[in-house]
Amino acid sequence: MTAINKLKVLHVAVGVIRNDSDEILIARRNSQQHQGGKWEFPGGKVEQGENVSTALARELKEELGIEVKHDQPLCQIRHCYPDRHVFLEVREVTRFSGKPIGLEGQPLQWLAASEMDPGIFPAANQAIVRAARLPRNIAIINNSHDAEQDWPSVIAGFSALPPQCWLRLRAITGSTPSQYLQKTKDFLISSTRNRPLLIDLDVSLQSIAELEALREKVLGLGLPGWGYYANKQVLAAMSEQRPPLLENITIGASCHNQQEYQLAVDKGMDFVIASPVASSTSHPENPGMGWRAFAAIAKTGMMPCFAMGGLSQQDYHLARQSAAYGIAGISLYR
């Protein structure tokens, strides 16, 4: 057994604390600590016999002087540093009382998720940053074969897009990877686009290099960036956790049951869209898994889980009560 395998795993409860402006609280680590000088999401060690929620509430009371009123699972992260292993159980804190104060002398800062620079955080926190940046809504649009597809009109057709909603550009049945890639490029360089995008990965993963080469140009135009989305066939085709080129890029995946959710976890995805929750117009023959089965998946807390299938915008709060991070859909926003 190597020395690194003998290292004890440090179990840590971490809080992504949001205020009424949807800003997130971060704290700076003391220069004498492990990863000193880096910014982090507040939290601390889970003591023997404690559950994660209790440990987080205790740590936030001790470090910040706040009382947690509501929290729910966000994600779990295992990371190996040269001198230690950490297991982070991350919970989203959306209600608390009191004003956070650095009771241990640590500087605090409220930031919008979009303003967070991953480079200021420890390596183990990178996945938390990606999770914190996720929207609450994902609208799915079909990528047509039509060479003259008018993207502004397509987007305008989604009349009920909430603020901060992301778009997933869905590859339709029958399109080849090259056709989808070209249409995606057309969409990416459209100056009318003002929302982050999720691009479907093809099984060969050949589109990644071309799309990543385009990223600098698109960002230079002042347009939002993008992430990727994988169906179960793409997940199965991945021979490694995530392509090295996409180490710090958001990647989501579809899942329809606990086994597919676990596959997404094993392949290092950042979130899943679990479906169908209920019968939908596109698949009326499928009654859906129901909220109880959905909650059983989402409450494992290994990664953010969106609900999709047969939902309306009125189902958002029910989805959140069932441990969903947010909701996604095609007709949901029309």
Automatic annotation (TrEMBL):
GO annotation (BP), single: DNA replication
Family named by the database record: Belongs to the Nudix hydrolase family.
Name of the protein this chain belongs to: 8-oxo-dGTP diphosphatase
SUPFAM superfamilies registered for this protein in UniProt: Nudix, Thiamin phosphate synthase
Assigned keywords, A-Z: DNA damage, DNA repair, DNA replication, Hydrolase, Magnesium, Metal-binding, Mutator protein
Cited PANTHER family: 8-OXO-DGTP DIPHOSPHATASE (PTHR47707), NUDIX HYDROLASE FAMILY PROTEIN (PTHR47707:SF1)
Cofactor(s) needed for function: Mg(2+)
Span of domain Nudix hydrolase: 7-134
Residues that, per the record, bind Mg(2+): G43, E63
Pfam families (UniProt xref): NUDIX_4 (PF14815), TMP-TENI (PF02581)
EC numbers for this chain: 3.6.1.55
Gene Ontology molecular function, alphabetical: 8-oxo-7,8-dihydrodeoxyguanosine triphosphate pyrophosphatase activity; 8-oxo-7,8-dihydroguanosine triphosphate pyrophosphatase activity; 8-oxo-dGDP phosphatase activity; 8-oxo-GDP phosphatase activity; metal ion binding
Source taxon at top rank: Bacteria
Organism: Pseudohongiella nitratireducens
Binding residues for 8-oxo-dGTP: R29, H34, E40, F41, P42, G43, N125
Catalyzed reactions per annotation: 8-oxo-dGTP + H2O = 8-oxo-dGMP + diphosphate + H(+); 8-oxo-GTP + H2O = 8-oxo-GMP + diphosphate + H(+)
